[in-house]
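Morning. Coffee machine broken again, so started the prediction first thing and wrote up yesterday's gels while waiting. Chain of 100 residues, entered below exactly as on the submission form.
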Amino acid sequence: MKKLLPILLTLAMLLCLAPCAEAETPELAIPFRFASKAEGVELLLANKEYYAKFSPNKLDYIMQRTGADMEEYLALAKEQVLDWTDEEKDIITRGIQRLP
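Came back before lunch.
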């Protein structure tokens, strides 16, 4: 359910962009693919600069306890990455295919 809102927002954005396309523009396919869970984890952990800016207070707030450390947070973050379901893939694919 948590992934449904970002999917719906993405589709809304894509559908809003469709009328902006010029009628004379030749039809182009948008190349895309869905990242696997392993790729998602790799991408999530790749931005070391982002995580370096976390303060101890931010870690405590996110983990909802005092004394939390970055290793605990990253372990939790990895657990939150999921594979796309067939339904999610279908919804996004149909939305992208509707774009001119």
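Residues 35-83 form one domain. Going to sketch it on the whiteboard this afternoon.
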